[in-house]
Design goal:
Layout (H helix, E strand, L loop, with lengths): L2 E5 L4 E6 L2 E6 L3 H9 L3 H17 L2 H12 L9 H7 L3
Antiparallel strand pairs: 1-2, 2-3
Length: 90
């Protein structure tokens, strides 16, 4: 059974799994928001993309819709890579 040590002031918990000690950082929502405020615009865009993608992939309806789109073999429902880049302004 793993043992735990907490340091509330530092917001960390050490979990000892035999020879491996994991440090789990515990942050409140306010602390997370404060950290996000320190990110650069590019880092915030990356974080936003991660959160949106994560939420979508956990949504069974979205996953089903995406699966249907990927499985669609009709060429008229697909665009070329060049057209996709143009539409996405890449």
């Amino acid at each position: 059974m793993p043992s735990h040590e907490s340091d509330a002031s530092a917001g960390t918990i050490a979990v000892d799994h035999g020879s491996i000690i994991l440090m789990v950082i515990s942050m409140s929502l306010a602390e997370l928001k404060s950290e996000v405020d320190r990110l650069s615009p590019e880092e915030r865009r990356q974080l936003t993309a991660y959160l949106v993608t994560r939420d979508r992939m956990l949504d069974p309806a979205f996953r089903q819709k995406l699966t249907c789109k990927i499985d669609d073999k009709s060429l008229e429902n697909w665009v070329s890579l060049e057209e996709a880049e143009k539409r996405l302004l890449l």
